[in-house]
Amino acid sequence: MAMEYVVLLPGQGSQKVGMGKDLYEAFPAAREAFHAVDDAVGAALSTLAFEGPADELTRTLNAQPALLAHSAAVWAVLRETLGSSVKATAGHSLGEFSAYHVAGALSLASAARIVRRRGTLMFEQGVARPGAMAAILGVLSTPIDAICEQATAERGLVVPANYNSEEQVVISGEVAGVERAMELAKDAGAKRCLPLPVSGAFHSPLMAPAVEGLAEAMRAETWEAPHVPVYANVNATPIVDATTAQTLLEQQLTAPVQWTQVVRALAKQFPSATFLEIGTGAVLTGLVRRIAPEVATASCGTVAEVEKLLASASA
């Protein structure tokens, strides 16, 4: 039986200096992908990704298109061999735009321009209305939604931003609200509460002023219907048309990433597929193993990993 794949695309936080450099040097298709993103955003993002400095790469407006470029470079090398075996895609936050590129809904240049604009808007909104995010790890005796409601009432707006797994939720909102929610989470049995190094309260109502700018950026590009379903962050449903895609990507700026539901829906629909993370790191692979340990997983972001995957797919 031929291999089937669900392709997963990582989000912000996975970036690291040196990402994709070996691919760039080894594969012409990867080189073209990095150059396409550089050209689309009018900046030498590939140089920043390969050489740093880290603090500049981590800036939201740089990290987002750089992560897209690495994922797209991997896909450019894999596409010919794996393309017909991909049954669905999904990406975490920023990675959802990479997923639409892999699914054929957006050219790489279009995706890069949108993602660069998205990162800029999110950064600017973080400056205009400072916020914070924190990861809450462990099983809680009080639901995170209730904790956020109490913290909001007492100190300031805070909401769940990423439902990453049963034991990992990221919260987002006003600084005082996030700090109070962390205290309440510790009281409810959280193992750890980790403030995240981000420039704003992503996936919260604080991002609302950025939505119209993102909508404009998406309207300015050409969209096609995805060739395979893209499972949406907002509601974990398979999206097969460009209009719905754009609507949900707008909502995604202020709504939580329902990653646990996305993985469960994919595992139920494609139980025999290999869940393949392409791009930087293996964060999503780790989450899939926790959420749906019954499915096969793999991550692919380096030359060695690409060559191993291509060899096994051709065997």
Q: Care to describe what's here?
A:
- The protein folds into 2 domains: 232 residues, Malonyl-Coenzyme A Acyl Carrier Protein, domain 2 (3-Layer(aba) Sandwich), CATH 3.40.366; 69 residues, Alpha-Beta Plaits (2-Layer Sandwich).
- The chain is globular, with a radius of gyration of 19 Å.
- It is 51% helix and 16% strand.
- It is α/β, with parallel strands linked by helices and 315 residues long.
- Helix 3 packs across helix 5, helix 5 runs antiparallel to helix 7 and helix 5 packs parallel to helix 14.
- It has a 4-stranded parallel beta sheet with strand order 2-1-9-10.
- It has 14 helices and 10 strands.
Briefly summarize what is shown.
The protein is of the alpha/beta class. The chain has helices at 21-26, 28-41, 45-51, 54-58, 60-82, 95-102, 108-128, 144-154, 175-187, 211-219, 242-252, 259-269, 283-291, 303-314, and strands at 5-9, 86-91, 132-137, 158-165, 168-173, 192-195, 230-231, 238-239, 274-278, 296-300.
Number of DSSP helical runs: 14
Task: Summarize the biggest pleated sheet.
Answer: 4 strands, parallel
Radius of gyration: 19 Å
Strand content: 15-25%
Poorly predicted parts: none
CATH superfamily of the largest domain: Malonyl-Coenzyme A Acyl Carrier Protein, domain 2
The CATH topology of the largest domain is given as Malonyl-Coenzyme A Acyl Carrier Protein, domain 2
Order of helices and strands: EHHHHHEHHEHEEHEHEEHHEHEH
Structural class: alpha/beta
Mean of residue pLDDT? 97
